Task: structure prediction
Amino acid sequence: MRRLALLTLVLSLSALAQESNRIDLVGAEIFGVDDAHSHLGFSIGFLGMTKVHGTFRSYRASILYDDAHPERSSVTVIIDPASIDTGEESRDKDLQGELFFDSAKHPKIVFRSTSIAHVRGDDYLMRGELTMKGVTRAIEIPMTRTVRRGADSAWGNIRIGGAGRTTLRRKDFNITGTKFWGDAVLSDEVTVEIDLLGNRPNYDRWSLEPAAQALWESAAAPAKYRGLPAGQLNIVIQRLMQRRRFADALELLAIARDAFPAEPGFYARSGEAYASLGQRDEAVRMYGKALELRADYAEAMEMLGRLRGHAVTR
Result:
């Protein structure tokens, strides 16, 4: 009973430690997406008789969420079209080809929101730009907030959630198919379904190796963390960020960037720390480097949009 009470207290304190992660410079806090418990799929009419259903197995997403004013939030989603999965390998191969997604020449599908309007209750209308196969078009997605911001009961992770559905015309994006498969068999309209679970992990529940744990418990100086693996350094840095110890985190991040110069995550965390301290130029520089190292870094794209003044239309 005492152990259960202690665990409950630890989770409560961990959740409280994450209650103030709003970055005033961008007016929101950063959420990644729990892709293991999210869904990004579609369905398309087949012969006017039934539907083919599919998903994308690989995508990255970042949400800047304003809990007080969800309509001031924004989202970037980057999808790998080569990860399409309709349950039939030969069909997936065709869909990756030139007449459909042409994933070799167009390896990214990108959605970036431009505005979110409150409709009623938990219902919102998200507008944005979808770029697919080299074509960019404005689209609208009715969304429902499914998970209000709060800590989950298992790990103390901070969660948000939303689901929506919209209809696109594939030919608007030059996804034509062959004359037979494009017109006689498949409908032009495609229904897209989204169910995203946003996540800010509680790094107090992530395990450190004994040496790293000993350093953490002794409040050792950043230089003493030199030599730790990237994953262990990241946990320590994230724990500091979670406690809003941004100056301490930046000291350790300088060591991490020096030791692992090709790891974009350390530049992104540096960008978040600088933004949290109100240092816009340094935040832009660090997020720019993260995006340079990984072109599909959704968080870097989302944060750079806000930091450079291209915020979501209010």
Summary: Confidence is low (pLDDT under 50) at residues 1-11. Residues 38 and 196 are 5 Å apart (CA to CA).
